């Protein structure tokens, strides 16, 4: 009898530990909290869990992990803005803006945005939860979001999710389900996307209108990545990097005394003007530029970038950002500077080479964000699972073909007079530069008829400008102002007849 009990116990133990690890397809956990934002104390509800992605046969093919924050005791939800928040990658979880920017909790950081131990979170007195409810969405294979096997044990085809247009299509469907479930169709709606999330939300604006009949009040691009600029093999676009070079060199005190003694915002307009008016046309001439012009441009680039004229000429005026990160301090301190935030410094094995061995800012952020989000979800939101939280998930190969997201945003704006756009960028971001973001903004509507519906805001930090305390405050305030100014306030969604001014003879 004792042997039978031992055998039964062994079988039970093996069975218990041989269960397949998987995330629930459709579940949620609700917790209640209090916070103080901008001096006002109020209660809010956090709902976190998973919601399915359906195929054409109404079968679940994936489940997305989300966190939804609602302010309590709001009498009229029809007037309460709802914001969907996405990060980028592609393949990044919605962790960065969730626990460092707009959410009710932020990382333990110093005032300049450097992580502190012990890891964890603290109250965010600057969160926009006081004026809007927020949904943080994790696309497939990020966070706890996963594909779901069918009855035969097969996963969906990867191209269903992993590509510019596939990503936009299934996320728009998922958002429709969410809005319906939460009864938020009447609410003013916004989407915010960081980095690749900028491409994502530009496309979502049009997809939501065309396929889901969901019209937005605002699209917010945070340090947007625009693939119409990247991977084009067109040297003229590298001219857009010069103002970033100026900003990073100014911060690292690598400019000439004439520029270094001025404030950053006093020198950037001059660098921007030179990039567009002189450098871009010079790069367009390629190898047929005259030697005199080439020498003149290289000298001025050195003036604005902190690099040597010789190194600029050796790159044929087309200076890669990767080279800049390695070269700027090579002969000064021998250190590298960060890609996503050039305030950060790194140490390579050798001072030689044409690029850094690693991105010092990203490694710094990773060792702070991963512990904090895992702790926060389990302890504060009470969501528990053995599934690994993917800060970065496997979403490759990513299909970048047929990228019409920039024009998709234009179409969405043209069809929806309510729709406005806010662009937020850090001056020290070398991955998705602030001037590249301005250029994207300029190119969305070539007619210029909607330019008064665009707003650009720059900050004295990098890709995640909200990590720096002063910018966390100002960037959230800029979001508040944008949301307030883009509400309809009873005004009809229509265009007024434009006045034409005729020059008198």
Beginning-to-end CA distance, first to last residue: 113 Å
What radius of gyration results from the CA coordinates? Answer: 25 Å
Which structural class fits the helix and strand makeup?
alpha/beta
Class of the largest domain, according to the CATH hierarchy? Alpha Beta
Strand content: 15-25%
Q: Which overall shape is indicated by the principal axes computed on the Cα atoms?
A: globular
Sequence stretches where pLDDT stays below 50 over 5 or more residues: 1-18
Order of helices and strands: HEEEEEEEEHEHEHHHHHHEEHHEHEH
Average per-residue pLDDT, rounded, comes to 93
CATH 2nd-level architecture of the largest domain? 3-Layer(aba) Sandwich
Number of helices: 13
What name goes with the CATH superfamily of the largest domain?
Alpha/Beta hydrolase fold, catalytic domain
CATH topology of the largest domain: Rossmann fold
């Amino acid at each position: 009898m004792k042997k039978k009990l031992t055998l039964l116990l062994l079988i039970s133990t093996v069975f218990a530990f041989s269960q397949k690890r998987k995330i629930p397809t459709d579940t949620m956990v609700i917790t209640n909290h209090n916070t103080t934002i901008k001096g006002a104390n109020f209660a809010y509800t956090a709902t976190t869990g998973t919601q399915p992605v359906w195929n054409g046969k109404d079968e679940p093919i994936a489940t997305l992990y989300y966190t939804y924050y609602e302010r309590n005791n709001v009498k009229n939800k029809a007037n309460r803005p709802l914001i969907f928040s996405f990060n980028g990658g592609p393949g990044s979880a919605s962790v960065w803006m969730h626990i460092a920017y707009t959410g009710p909790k932020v990382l333990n950081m110093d005032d300049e945005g450097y992580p502190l131990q012990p890891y964890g979170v603290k109250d965010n007195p600057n969160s926009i939860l006081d004026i809007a409810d927020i949904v943080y969405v994790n696309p497939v294979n990020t966070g706890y979001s996963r594909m779901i096997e069918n009855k035969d044990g097969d996963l969906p085809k990867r191209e269903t999710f992993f590509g510019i247009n596939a990503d936009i299509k299934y996320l728009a469907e998922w958002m429709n389900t969410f809005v319906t479930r939460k009864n938020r169709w009447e609410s003013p709606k916004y989407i915010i996307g960081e980095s690749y999330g900028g491409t994502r939300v530009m496309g979502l604006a049009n997809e939501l209108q065309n396929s889901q009949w969901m019209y937005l009040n605002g699209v917010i691009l945070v340090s947007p990545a625009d693939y119409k600029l990247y991977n084009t093999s067109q040297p003229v676009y590298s001219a857009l990097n010069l103002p970033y070079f100026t900003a990073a060199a100014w911060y690292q005190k690598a400019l000439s005394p004439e520029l270094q003694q001025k404030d950053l915002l006093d020198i950037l307009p001059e660098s921007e003007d030179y990039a567009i008016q002189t450098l871009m046309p010079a790069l367009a001439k390629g190898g047929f530029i005259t030697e005199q012009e080439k020498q003149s441009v290289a000298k001025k680039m050195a003036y604005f970038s902190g690099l040597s004229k010789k190194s600029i000429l050796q790159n044929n005026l087309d200076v890669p950002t990767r080279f800049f990160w390695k070269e700027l301090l090579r002969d000064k301190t021998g250190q590298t500077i960060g890609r996503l935030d050039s305030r950060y410094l790194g140490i390579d094995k050798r001072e030689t080479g044409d690029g850094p061995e690693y991105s010092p800012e990203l490694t710094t952020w990773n060792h702070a964000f991963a512990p904090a989000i895992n702790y926060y979800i389990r302890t504060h939101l009470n969501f528990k699972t053995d599934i690994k939280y993917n800060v970065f998930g496997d979403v490759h190969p990513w299909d970048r073909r047929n990228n019409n997201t920039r024009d998709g945003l234009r179409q969405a704006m043209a069809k929806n007079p309510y729709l406005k756009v806010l662009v937020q960028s850090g001056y020290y971001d070398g991955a998705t530069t602030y001037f590249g973001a301005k250029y994207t903004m300029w190119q969305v509507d070539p007619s210029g008829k909607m330019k008064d519906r665009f707003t650009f805001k720059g900050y004295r930090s990098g890709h995640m400008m909200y990590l720096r305390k002063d910018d966390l405050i100002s960037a959230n305030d800029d979001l508040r102002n944008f949301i307030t100014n883009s509400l309809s306030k009873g005004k009809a969604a229509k265009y007024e007849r434009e006045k034409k001014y005729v020059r008198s003879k």
